[in-house]
Write the structure tokens for this entry.
Amino acid sequence: MTAPAAMTAAHGRPILEIRNVTKDFGGVRATDDLSLAIAPGELHCMIGPNGAGKSTFFKLLMGTIRPTKGEILFNGEDITRLPPHQRARRGLGIKFQNMQVYSELTVFQNFFIPLRRNHKPSAMPGLVADILDRIHLSGLEDELVRNLSHGQQQWLSIGMSIALEPKVLLLDEPAAGMGRDETQSTAEIIKSLNAEGMTIIVIEHDMEFIRNLSSRTSVLHLGALFAQGSYEEIETDDDVRKIYLGKV
Amino acid sequence: MTGRADETTPVNSHAKIPFGFLRLVEGPQTMGRGWPFWTGFAIVILLAFLAPTYFGIRPYRVNEFIVSGFLAASLSILWGYAGILSLGQAAFFGVGGYVFGIIGINLFDATGNTHLALAGGILAPTVFAAFVGAIMFFARLKGVYIAILMLVLSLLLETFMLQTADPEVYRIGEALLGGANGLRPASDIPSVAFGWGEAVAEINGRREGFYYFALTLLIVVYLALRMLLNSSFGYLLVAVREDPDRTETFGYDVRLIQLAVFCLSAALAGLAGSLDTARINRVDPELVFSVSANIMVVIWVAVGGRKDLTTAILGAITLEWLYLWLTTSGSPEYATLVMGGILVAAMLIAPEGVFVWIGNRLGRLFGRSRTPAAKAGEAHQ
């Protein structure tokens, strides 16, 4: 089951390819010779214990930090040295682990920033209504964002990323801090976006949530790719269970 | 203001409405809208224009307040809207003032006007800001580092200008930099003058004419800035203030947005500096580059309300008035102390600004919704 070396996605040419990426912070190696390929339309989960390098991996993908060595290819183009805004323009969307919404603006105004680049103002009300429907926030256009619940703000953050119409959407702990029902709804939102054809990578440490998504899953440990396979394979892997319990 | 699709925000379609852009004069990024605000605005403007004739105000003093309004606006758009605190805003004010004076001394006799001096007084700090800003923002400096760097820059300019007394070395054409005494010959520093040949109107900085001119210009700049802040650019500024990293992930080069507002802010400060030099025909290092010159701007804007253009300008005018009253009412030695006390009190009682607090309550009185900044202010009180 495990396939930590350079690998090819199961179906088609990869839309995102990470080749032997290493990231050092001083003497600490946060990402260790990581290679991974994501196919177009794939829903891919990444799990790992705290400190495994999951969030660092997303920061490397988005360009907020740059790798010490290795390269990242998006649609075949080397984007390793591109700044974040250039990556976003090429079709990488992200929701980082923290909330990242504009809390002093209304829900509608929050969408103005991601929509402004590609759409006329006259088209925005319809587009916003459509996105809000997809993220379970219909009718909340005029609500001040900091009045929304934690879960609603998480969905809004996902919705703002969707507004960019990304080719690949990166979601860092989209269900963090949510209750059971909200977590379930979040999983449904992600699955429906994927069903529409969006390539999505999800970082999460809630195994229940990952089980719900039931997709190809990679396990990170100490910055390296530790294991990869279907959720069922990962769940029954003794080594994976051990690293979660701190025995490896 | 809620930013609904049917309101006057840039998220609406005004493309087919003639002069629809004028509607941007009100919107979610600026406090005040509808008849209550604009009626109050008109009354204040009317009173201001009648003040020299009917209320006996002395333009020589009041002109200073108006100039401070431009400077407060420059820091408000930079700090309040874009989230970039500069403790050295007076550096651009000073560069503008010196360049206006230098060009004025050299060209006024030949041209009879101050067109080039004013243009230089605005352009020079803008170019200076583009240079400094490009280094700061592309090096990804942020927060307190920018604030301190700008203060140090202003103090460096002060230190340099203080040692420019030697007339043989530090002269630009007819203008002598003059060290601590300031630009010389002071008698050749012009007030503002417009026109060509026989049709030149010179506006003495100590007379009513300058008051009407500066007040009109402040109103025009204020309305233009309101439109800018309620446009897409204003939204981007607020987005950069709220979360620059997130804004970058939406495909915006945040560094360029920061650089643009930094340059715009410097241009406004340069305009203020030029008007100040024209107002008193004087500019010296302590007046424009010192710590107190820089900190006063921060106090005006913080006390008035940094996140709104109107409140920042009102803060500057009110505090300058108060400062003048304190320094001329027999206890000038306590004036700075009182100003500091006002800042501390305002930060404790109305951290988003005194005029934001007042505007918030007036808005409630007239049943109007408020700006996000005002709502945030309410949450803190």
In short: Chain B touches chain A through 33 residues (CB under 8 Å). The mean pLDDT of chain B is 88. Residues 160 and 179 of chain B are 8 Å apart (CA to CA).
